[in-house]
Amino acid sequence: MRKLWHAIEDYIHSPDPLGRVTNLIALCIVGNQPIYPLYVAWALGHWNSTVLYTWLTAPFFALVPWAGRRDIKAGKLLMCLAGIGNTALSVMLLGRASGVALFFIPCALLSIILLGRWIGWLLALAALALWPALDAISSASLPLLFRLNAFSVGTLCGFILLLTYRARKQMTQENNRLGN
User: Fold this and answer.
1) Coil, strand or helix at 99
2) pLDDT digits (tens, 9 = 90+) for 24-54
């Protein structure tokens, strides 16, 4: 088990603190994806095999650390695009009434934090613009799944903000140490 943990730590390592945040979030999402269909089945009260299609995005999240080692900005961009793609696919599969469109909020948050400037804001706006565009797909009211997804979004946003705060604090400390 220790070897596995060290392999994961090595895989998510990045000299850039925000790169490490990106990698950690990506692997947390990869770890959650196999569980998500069970979560949906519990909330719906029946099995919905179409939700398995969300697994199609898992390889993109898994490749984020690999891409980030080649180019830190590429890893961050892949993370943001994978999140937007996964959310759009999930909305198409489950409908907006499921609350899964709320995941566009952490997508927008990550785009702004990780990419900054105009590209982050552009991706954030694109993510949020997809939200109402997918509204027509929803046909059923899914209150329990909506509440679970809303809770998950809140937790994910909190996780993103906590990791970002810690990374920025580390970067400030390193800059102060180098400046002294």
Assistant:
1) coil
2) 999 999 999 999 888 888 888 888 888 899 9
